[in-house]
């Protein structure tokens, strides 16, 4: 047996990058829609942890990873309703509420998760090769020889792009985030719209977290999302609130994650801490650049992001 | 349908009432979480109280936990007043700790204690300030979202710390553990209560609270910060330099977080290691909020949440209750608190039908 060819290594690396990117893609798309509706939820890290934990527990107990995935998604969605109630109904501070959600997610999963630390799942997701698409050199293996949750993320990204720009639902959603008073005058229910998309953001954050413990790393560790929720918040800016751009952002960071992991496994002399730092450092640099571009081009940003809406206070 | 009417001003009584209700609600939610784990919440809470206030030693440990909370929260109050969300005290604390450790570990050995501690104090302030200037400048001039930038810099700071601890700052005699050499006596902050770990850092904290109160209430800078907090547009219209004020406020906030890191190492831990409790940076956000951005209230709230943390460590050891329960209680307090802010802004009544 000879050493694996460079093409095989590249395929493996990129295929891992897609899976790592999928953990980010779900919450990034979710947050894009929450923010499009005018609600800023910086609690993704907490919702992802909740999704990761409950997804893991259900998958562990039922031995069914798909059931686990849906449970994680639902748990993430339910946790987002706390934020929705505080920021929409009670018009509380959205940044602080999101932070509280992050602290809550970390605390509750640490508290109940202690017992399960280092438990492993006995069942894993099956890779399904898509007929003829998976035969394309490199690209086929990378994109079309994955598990069903990865495929679902492709569908969601494209479907959500379509909904955002090509349907009445999307027009109403954007109206609510850009000018809630005008949307209200058009007859759109601002409160219901915001509740729905905040819940949607929670579902997808839960999905990303659940994919982490069910697909990417089938075990439970305390705080194992390790800041991915914050990277997702930043990717929303990078994606300029467009679900298709989110795909590129998520896979870029997925590649970086997969690469640093491979380098460490290959026994590089670069210290592990400096390698692990890279995704955070790069995200930092990227949001600075993205912010400058967004400002220069005046694109994307929902104009009333983070501002509460009250029917009583018409200006 | 709930009907909201704007309130003109909020009485101190209502504020205190809401704070107390929030803490009680947080404790009740925590109790439910504990109950679901099949642990008797009353036993757990009793142990937390004994663990925090039960003896002279545990009482001093509560003050040890309160010290970094006071230092960080009063700094956060300053920037929160202008609606700048510094979520980066975690990172600023770490960088302050690293900067001050450099002098403790590699400074001239025979330097006097007073001089070394003064240098370390300034190093801690400088380290925290440097880590805070970056997001402040980016926000002030390019509108880079400071919630995200400060948070990401926390992770960068954490890995810088790990880099040093797994690299050339590790003590060769630590058997591979990521610990530095222990600090010599002249790098240790004096303890202010005998037979305890309560140290001079607590006095730093109280001085900081007084200074921040003075800045906010008695200086032009403090006035401008309050105007900016009200409305950036109004502040610009009034000729206030928003960017400059934002950067100065962040320098102070970061410096105090860095000083908290220095005080924790020099006063309590006496070495640099990975576990230096930067999580105080997040708890301090809750302190700032629970004290309605009042520096003196923050001192008392810090002692309260310091007691919760200190008692939380105790029940982790004695009852094997995971420390996460403290975060559950803290976040529940915060949820109820910000949820009830609506009570302060509006009078709420029930009205029939839609408005």
Structural topology:
The complex is a heterodimer of chains A (315) and B (355).
Chain A: H1 6-36, H2 44-62, H3 65-89, H4 94-113, E1 128-129, H5 139-144, E2 145-146, H6 148-166, H7 168-178, H8 180-185, H9 190-216, H10 228-238, H11 243-265, H12 272-297
Antiparallel strand pairs in A: 1-2
Helix pairs in contact in A: 1-6, 1-9, 1-10, 1-11, 2-3, 2-4, 2-9, 2-10, 3-4, 3-9, 6-7, 6-11, 10-11, 10-12, 11-12
Chain B: E1 2-6, H1 12-36, H2 41-53, H3 56-81, H4 89-106, H5 113-142, H6 146-166, H7 201-218, H8 220-230, H9 232-237, H10 242-269, H11 280-290, H12 295-319, H13 324-345, E2 346-350
Antiparallel strand pairs in B: 1-2
Helix pairs in contact in B: 1-2, 1-13, 2-3, 2-12, 3-7, 3-8, 3-10, 3-11, 3-12, 4-5, 4-6, 4-10, 4-11, 5-6, 5-10, 7-8, 7-12, 8-10, 11-12, 11-13
In short:
The complex is a heterodimer of chains A (about 325) and B (about 350). With about 325 residues, chain A is an all-alpha fold.
Estimate nothing, just give the exact number of structural domains of chain A.
Answer: 1
Biggest chain pair contact, residues each? A-B, 50 and 53 residues
Q: Based on the coordinates given, report the CATH architecture of chain A.
A: Orthogonal Bundle
Describe the largest sheet of chain A: 2 strands, antiparallel
Q: Overall pLDDT of chain B, averaged?
A: 91
Terminal CA distance of chain B: 8 Å
CATH class membership of chain A:
Mainly Alpha
